Amino acid sequence: MTSTLAKDKGASPSPPSVPPAQRARRLRRRGRVVALLFVFPALLLLGALVVYPVLFSVGRSLFDASGTRFVGADNYTEMFRNPATLKAIRNTTIWVVVAPVLLTGLGLILAVLVEKVRWATAFKLLLFMPMAVSFLAAGIIFRLAYDEDPDKGVLNAAVVSVHDVFKDSSSYPAARAREGHGLTKGDDGSYSTRAGLSPGDTVHLPMVGVLPKDLPGGAGPASAAAGGKTAADELRGVVYLDFTPGGGGTQGKVDSGESGLPGMKVEAVRDGQTVASTTTASDGSFHFGGLKAGSYAVKLPESNFAPPYQGISWLGPTLVTPMIIGAYLWIWTGFAMVLIGAGLSALPRDALEAARIDGANEWQIFRRITVPLLAPVLTVVFVTLVINVMKVFDLVYIIAPGPVQEDATVLATQMWLVSFGGGNNQGLGSALGVLLLLLVIPAMVFNVRRFRRSQ
Q: Which residues form the ABC transmembrane type-1 domain (predicted)?
């Protein structure tokens, strides 16, 4: 008994037990410290690249262009008085209303249709491929596609081809009458002779301004058509290029070697009314038969000299914004389709099959089952696109030509133009940046809350 007490007396006391609640708090505190150490580099980058620029822009927006004089809210009031800024706000509104709606709708339709395509994966890859193209490259591609010159712009090349199928274009847009040789130009661009010709007369109509290489392939010499007899009820003539290759010849006279102008429309006019119409032959000759006695004039209508159809001004002030939105759709449709397709693949198939068994057609299934079930996915896609559209810059700046840059400008491009693109007013530019941030924040908050609810 005594030895036992001695052993107990010499033994070290046991450490006091830690309550479980305190131990849990220590573990949580240690976990927070470790998590903070891991998150700290990201927070540092976030602060340097996001928080600091935002705070700096807010502060800079309260100073003048030089950054030395405090002006308070003057930049914000000036922003809404500037017509260019108001136009940028209007264009941004058009982008926000049109682009996300079209993209979400196209993505939904394509996602549903792709499910019924045999090579669905290849089709998705093809549509998603534009996402791999940078906005700079896409802007250059569409700038060339929208070029007004049909020889460069693929869209105008197609439009001109279709137009020329249904309506003939002029073969002599640069032709004009030889001055002082019987032809006068009208206000509408036509040429006509004096009103003193009678049936049985022959008239020569000399033209210049056409290069020999630009003559139609079947054009023949006009000298043979210039001679010959004319019937008593007939009015004859020849339209020819008054130019002798190699030099020489007499102006206003059909010389040997001068070519006729085939395919030119000619009219016989009496008392201001067109009584007969014809087209010149390969040698430039024409004739009007069965004319009654009287005084006539010969007219070359303005359609002979109309400039060729050049297509549509895709990048003009009226169409530039819709055309840039079209380029944006080309890039982002695949993105919307893939996201919506992922949501579509997660839909319960038993609900769709039950609807088919109950007799619902595909349109009813799409409208009453597929779309309601996809509503969360569609909302996320739509809001994400709204955020992206508000910040669009590259396409607008690259595709819109300089003369219409102001007609196509949005808030992002206006902010850059005011700050660095010649305006050199970084106070006003910072105010535009703050406005853009305030417009984007509600959509971002909505998306974050949506993600939290889904989790």
A: 89-447
Q: Phi and psi of 271, rounded to 5°? A: 55, 40
Q: How far is C-alpha 125 from the chain's CA centre? A: 23
What does the pLDDT read at residue 1?
46
8 Å CB contact between 105 and 371: no
* CA–CA dist 111, 106 (Å, integer): 8
Given a contact cutoff of 8 angstroms between Cβ atoms, the answer to whether 226 and 257 are in contact is no
Q: For the chain, what's the residue count?
A: 455
The residues that bridge with 288 in the sheet, in sequence order, are 235
- Rounded distance between C-alpha atoms, residue 178 and residue 200, angstroms: 24
- The domains of the chain are located at 74-156+314-454, 176-305
74-156+314-454 to CATH, choices 1.25.40.10, 3.90.1150.210, 1.10.3720.10, 3.40.50.10490: 1.10.3720.10
Q: In 147-289, at which residue ranges do the beta strands (DSSP E only) sit?
A: 176-177, 184-185, 191-192, 202-208, 235-241, 265-270, 273-279, 285-288
**pLDDT one-digit tens code per residue, 55-101:** 998 999 999 888 888 988 888 888 888 888 899 999 999 999 999 99
In sequence order, which residues have a C-beta less than 8 Å from that of residue 370 and are 6 or more positions away?
112, 344, 347, 352
pLDDT tens for each residue of 267-324: 999 888 888 999 998 888 898 888 888 888 999 998 888 887 888 899 999 999 999 9
The domain made up of 176-305 has a fold known as Immunoglobulin-like (2.60.40)
